Amino acid sequence: MRNRSSALLAVLLAGCAAVPLDSSAIPHPSSRGGPAVAAPYPYREAVGVIHIHSTYSDGLKPVEAIARIANAQELDFLIFTDHDTLRGRREGKEGWHGETLVLIDEEISTKGGHYLALGLAREVPRLEDARWTIEAVSRQGALGFIAHPFWPRRPWKDLDAHGMTGLEIYSAVQDVTEENVLLLGFWTIFTGSEFSLIQWLNRPSETLALWDRMLARGERVVGIGSPDAHGLRRWGLQLGPYATMFKLVRDHLLVRELSRPAIYDALAKGRLFVAHDLVADARGFTFLAVRRNALEGVMGDQVKWRRDLRLYAYLPSPGKMSLFRDGKPVAEAAGQHGWFPVSGPGIYRLEATRKGKPWIYSNPLYVIE
Length: 369
Ligand SMILES: [Zn+2]
Ligand SMILES: [Zn+2]
Hints:
By secondary structure, the protein is an alpha+beta fold. It has a domain at 43-278: TIM Barrel (Alpha-Beta Barrel). It has helices at 2-14, 63-72, 87-90, 130-139, 172-175, 178-191, 205-216, 242-248, 260-269; strands spanning 44-52, 77-83, 95-97, 100-110, 113-118, 143-146, 166-171, 222-226, 232-234, 237-240, 250-255, 272-275, 286-291, 294-298, 302-304, 310-325, 328-341, 346-354, 357-362, 365-368. The strands form two sheets. It has an 18-stranded mixed β-sheet that branches. Strands 9-10 form a two-stranded antiparallel sheet. β16 and β17 (328-341) form a beta hairpin. 50% of the residues are buried. The site of one zinc ion has 4 residues, from loops.
């Protein structure tokens, strides 16, 4: 089945050479275990972590030490978001640390919750009204994401606010409670295993419902996932090590090159998926719209509806897929390949689980009249 579908997709996508392409810059995701789709596929996958704290705010380690951890995990990028400061950028920490591109951005404290701002030229004042902050970030042409909307300690209060780029659809601080982290700390000490964190992964149903409501208002809202990694230490125990948090949730971006503008562009357009790579390596996941012999679009794209439009999903290892249309589950598939007819316009996104655990959340494909 796998070979047949992959071959079929290769044939289908062989016809999409019209996509502008600088072939020299684009190793295909299949080189990392993805599907054998044809070479004209215009993107490569950049895997990284967004929302990390260093010693520039309340994180445990300095940027360089954290970047070394990312390097060891072969992460393509890291986005630091220390609280209310861009000092790390001013001190020259942004740039390549080994094979990992480090970007220095900011988590802004507002009166109504925390807001991640990516690509700011200068800091936005803290403790202002949330809507004022959203506007101030947009005015600088930067991207803004609501952080941990339902974290009881710092919830996002204004759920009707708009104008942001997106929100954290998965936030580790919301999901993995401090009590669990404490248990994890003891588990890690006694067993030396970090994988018990999988036990506490939950589908963030409340946040996903919020996302679907926002999308239903007709706004493009990009979903990202974040560990909010601090290298948490309590009672002398290291409870949330960066290395573990970096596997717990990652953002997989489709980019044409690995650069600061390309990363922000993928984040602005929603050309990404969120994955718990601790559950299984998610590199190579694919969610496409195809029609006849052409690639019609990837996540974040707007695609015109036609009767013969189909959605295709590929999982890098077997799992279960659920397709959502306008927030409602409409189809399921199991295994590695899913082909789905498109019965009409709508906002289509895909979730995947593996062995009963949440695994992958796609960004939507927008199918229009
Ligand atoms: Zn926060
Ligand atoms: Zn944070």
